[in-house]
Amino acid sequence: MELTDSFGVALPVDAAWELLNNVERIAPCVPGAFLQEKVDEEYRGVVKVRFGALSAQYAGTAIFVPDEERRRIVIHAKGEGTQGAAEARITATLEEMSAATTQVNVDAAIEVGGRVAQIGQRILPDLTQVLTAQFAENLTAVIAGVEPDPFHQPSDIDMPEPEALDLLDAARPSLFRRLGSLGALGVLVAIVRSLRRRR
Q1: Single pTM value for the model
Q2: How far apart are CA 147 and CA 139, in angstroms?
């Protein structure tokens, strides 16, 4: 599945570039993600999610490939877990909007297998937008200094383990929209049937 989204960062483009390349610092901003270690250029960690009663945990790796000249970061991530496998290729391109703001344009190719994909495939685009917004909100807190930075040395990863990301809770607005559309369709069908009976 191909997805596109964007978010703003309240930093000059050079400062935003430096922050987004600090993987240890931004990892806590990713909902449900738990960064465990770095081996050579490969980051290893876990993503924990749940969808109602269904829970899943993906253990995997991510490789970051920065292109400073183009202000672009390419992330190759893949993992396997209790409910299947997932793989993603994410490209984040920084665009200077003003002297104090930067826009991050995100293009992603995501493949998710297993039961989570079967349940959440239709809402994945909306869900991705919600998670991008959550990441941006967490990143804003880091920039503002609201969240402490526990990573004083890049080699010392001591990230607290987060709670599982609740996909059902994140997708609730999308589900309500879909149910609202279905409800409107149901009302329309009822009206048509009523008119036919009157004839």
Answers
A1: 0.69
A2: 9
